[in-house]
Amino acid sequence: MLRGLKKGGTNNYGIEDKYSAQYSPAVISAMGAANFTPTDLEKVIAGKNIKASASFTGIQNNVSASSSVKDLESMFQLLYLKLMHPRTDEALFNAYKEKQITQLQFLTANPQLGFVDTLFTVLYNNNPLAPSPLPKPEHYNAIKLDRAMDIYRNEFGTADGYQFFIVGNVSQDAIVPLIET
Fold this sequence. Notes:
Elements: E1 2-7, H1 18-22, H2 24-31, H3 38-44, E2 50-56, E3 60-67, H4 72-84, H5 90-107, H6 111-123, H7 137-141, H8 145-156, E4 163-166, H9 172-180
Helix pairs in contact: 2-5, 2-8
């Protein structure tokens, strides 16, 4: 298992970039990496026990990956692709937004979620940078693809500032060359 942490997060961005920053890891994940769509990536890693992802909180960036011992090199390769070579695909970006907006129709039917949304609005005194417990269609419509890509590359495109933690049943002699590569 690998975990990387770095100070940063969505709070480094202003109101104009709030949703582009907040949803950039999900947008990138929905478009794939390098020349691979998400479906292509699934085919490439079929039969391997590997995962890799990036995420934000308000104050930190998170990178995580896991694999079996025999798939360790593939895990590092997948993580490298996802972090260093995010893929831009406008059709998949639009499909991601449509899917999220459609799912919101079912969520907004629950009155408890409306209460929570109102509670956050009151607690944060209508602050436009406050966290949103329930996304709204306008949040997804406010995502600018180019800006989301820039934010993702800025936050995840280099290992500078990250602290990495790696645990597992692997020798130091085996893992050091993979890390260096």
